[in-house]
């Protein structure tokens, strides 16, 4: 069974892999908390095709790494079970693992899509062993922070963000991670914030094609939010024109909250 996901599309696995240097991400955000101990157990929640979990295995070849996602086909597209990380599917809001099964549990860019993110974080904490580490990584401002934000783009963004919110998406998930982790009872919280999107002036061709794909995958939602496929096309054109302008800045930030399970 596939857990509903706003960006569901055959092309989503390829999009996710293309937009991150997984080894660099693991080096920056996970390496400090990944145990050196052989057999250390690590869980990636909302793993997509498992590209980040594979990088964890490259960093700690003796670890037992599980890539977990709501879409079994996307997971399988990353490779067969047994080669690389173990691949398991299900719902992050009811993880199919025993209490205290993992030394490190992390989630990258999933929580923003789940309205019940408090439940998912509580589940992540539950399956982490006492003394183990939970790492939450998510964005703040994606899609909505631009300068200048002209009236045309503003008029388009309003109904789209309303529709996204109704579908459970929160563009300010990043800033909420600290409070969510605190309320879950995680301790020794460490908060870090880094630039994520940063497009000053004309967007480069690689990033532009990534945005084109993202907007194309989001096209059904845009059409529903704006009333017609034609209105969705006009919104895509206006957004890409904004990114193509020498005069505009678009940005978002990524929050990383690391905590210890008591
Ligand atoms: C934006 S992708 C992030 C993938 C990967 N973590 C990365 O950083 O590239 C979000 C992933 O979360 C998964 N997802 C969304 N809601 C989920 C849920 N309730 N349970 C499990 N996975 C879920 C989706 O299937 C999707 O693969």
Describe this structure in words.
This is Methyltransferase domain-containing protein. Pfam families: Methyltransf_11. Keywords: Methyltransferase, Transferase. InterPro entries: Methyltransf_11 (IPR013216), SAM-dependent_MTases_sf (IPR029063). One of its GO terms (molecular function) is S-adenosylmethionine-dependent methyltransferase activity. The relative contact order is 0.14. The mean pLDDT is 96. Strand 2, helix 4 and strand 3 (86-89) form a beta-alpha-beta unit. Strands 1, 2, 3, 4, 5, 6, 7 and 8 form an eight-stranded mixed β-sheet that branches. This protein has one domain (12-260): Rossmann fold. Helix 2 (22-30) packs across helix 3, helix 8 (205-217) packs antiparallel against helix 10 (229-244) and helix 9 packs across helix 10. By secondary structure, the protein is α/β, with parallel strands linked by helices. The longest helix has 16 residues, at 151-166. The protein contains ten helices and eight strands. S-adenosylmethionine (SAM) binds next to loops.
């Amino acid at each position: 069974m596939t857990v509903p996901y706003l960006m569901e599309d055959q092309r989503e696995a390829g999009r996710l892999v293309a937009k991150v240097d997984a080894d660099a991400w693991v080096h920056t955000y996970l390496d400090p908390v990944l145990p050196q101990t052989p057999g250390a157990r690590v869980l990636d929640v909302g793993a997509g095709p498992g590209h980040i979990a594979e990088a964890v295995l490259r960093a700690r070849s003796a670890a037992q790494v599980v890539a977990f996602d709501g879409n079994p086909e996307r997971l399988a597209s990353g490779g067969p079970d047994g080669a690389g990380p173990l691949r398991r599917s299900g719902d992050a809001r009811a993880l199919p693992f025993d209490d205290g099964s993992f030394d490190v549990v992390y989630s990258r860019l999933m929580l923003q899509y789940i309205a019940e993110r408090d439940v998912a974080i509580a589940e992540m904490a539950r399956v982490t062993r006492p003394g183990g580490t939970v790492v939450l990584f998510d964005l703040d401002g994606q899609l909505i922070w631009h300068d200048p934000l002209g009236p045309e783009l503003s008029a388009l963004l309003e109904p789209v963000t309303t529709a996204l919110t109704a579908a459970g998406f929160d563009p300010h998930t990043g800033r909420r991670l600290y409070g969510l982790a605190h309320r879950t009872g995680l301790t020794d919280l460490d908060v870090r914030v880094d630039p994520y999107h940063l497009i000053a002036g004309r967007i480069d061709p690689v990033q532009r094609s990534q945005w084109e794909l993202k907007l194309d995958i989001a096209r059904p939602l845009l059409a529903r939010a704006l009333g017609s496929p034609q209105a969705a096309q006009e919104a895509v054109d206006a957004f890409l024109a904004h990114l193509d302008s020498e005069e505009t800045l678009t940005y978002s930030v990524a929050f990383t909250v690391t905590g210890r399970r008591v």
